Sequence to fold (311 residues):
Amino acid sequence: MNIKKILVSQPRPTSEKSPYFDLESKYGVEIVFRPFIKVEGLTSKEFRQSKINVPDYSAIILTARTAIDHFFRLCKELRYNVPDTLKYFCVSETVAHYLQKYVIYRKRKIFYSETGRMEDLIPIIAKHNKETYLMPVSDVHNDKAVVLDNNKVKYVKAVMYRTVSNNFKPGETFDYDMLVFFTPAGIKSYTTNFPDYMDRKVVIAAMGSTTLEAAAKAGLTIDVTITPEAPSMASAIAQYLKKVQAEEEKAATATDEDTQALAAKRSAAAKKAAATRAAKKAAADALAAKRSAAAKKAAATRAAKKAADKK
Fold:
């Protein structure tokens, strides 16, 4: 399938160095960033219904910048002054640095995974096993929470925000060749917005076990996902586009070869037909010459006989 337009269900990257922009220039595709979902924060009233008392916890596990935003937002709404002694355990250095928006980074106890993988944060958490952990999450829990559960980390999940469908407007153009999903909520939004999704001929890309599971339940076939050789979605898409382009070039080459073969065949046939016509003409000319010679000989014989009769 020829891929010209890709919808990535995430906000547009703030950095122009994003690998998605490299895909546009390298493979000649158009990438549109259009989230299928949007995040809404729980109100302080809604959060109080969970019976979670934030001051009871000495450490916070943070998996995304969104979690940081809503944690500090709710603390402000709850009139809770976040203490300087609070410890932060972040899934990546990027998430950790985002804390600078709310705290003085160098004066806080902040820990993070060097690899950006939740599995590599576990040993750090294990060294601080006397802490009481709180993990701000969305109403749809992700793989990172599963990692904590599998490693028997004692923590409490605090739903501080929710994901809701970012509905498409009636009649809105939807002419994408590939759709890229990162969350189960994104899959749900797509199938809700487009009930005829099973009939749409689009390439589906997705990552994350829960997202892949949601896609399977919806009956979607995943064409692109991350692998050890392509550990990021951008690299997985690049690998797929490279394969598609190679197939297209092969098909084009095969078509050219077929065209050349047909032209050569037609040329040979034309030459053969011309040779046949030439041979037929030569035979006809020879026959005509033979007949002309015979006629001249007959005429000469008749003339000689007539002359003899006169004598």
